[in-house]
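Hey, quick one: can you model this chain's 3D structure?
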Amino acid sequence: MSTVLWYTLPIAVAIALSVFPIVAVLVLLLAPDPMRRSVAFTSGWAVGLLLLVAVFTVSAKLTPHEARVPFPPWAHVAEIAIGVILLGTALFAGRRGERSVSSGRSSLSGLTSMSGPRAFAFGLMMNVRPKNIVLTIAAGLAIGAASLDLAASVTIVVVVTVVGASTVAGLVLVYAVGKSNVRPGLERLRRYLVEHASTVLRILAALIGALLVVIGTVQLVSS
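Sure thing. Here's the predicted structure for all 223 residues.
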């Protein structure tokens, strides 16, 4: 279990550092009626993340493989493929990064007028983005393809979800404690992330992609 946990933690951290959910919750926290909408958005983000990791974990468990093998060879091949996709994203995202950020800004502009249920639904839909799908597939493969019992699998799925949602939930908690005192800091963070979103996305994609390729290759060769 510890091997799978240490493998999935970097993936969970990469999910936690996703720029757009963080910017979205910052927009909500800086808008009127911040707590109701931000809590609803955070709940949707966490529930969607939990569902994706759980679905990919179950899918991997349903794929036949030898119980004696901690990770079957196909899982390593899939890890390498996912890593290559992320590296490709990091290499080619620069040309379209500014357009992606501009599109993200326009989609976030309507957040301040959303009701609580719509903010929850928006949080759910934030999970249906290419990088997030790729990362949750990688986490689900690692958990589902390993020879773990149900309790261990559920525990790691929950840990990945908690870590992945920690930045968004943490910002809501910071605002709940600090109220207006933390607004200037949150505004500075929002501006910084919007201005540097493309660079942050490329760095994260490159780091996690390289990690998956190296781990997948080493384990495939040694299996």
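One thing worth noting: Residues 2-222 form one domain.
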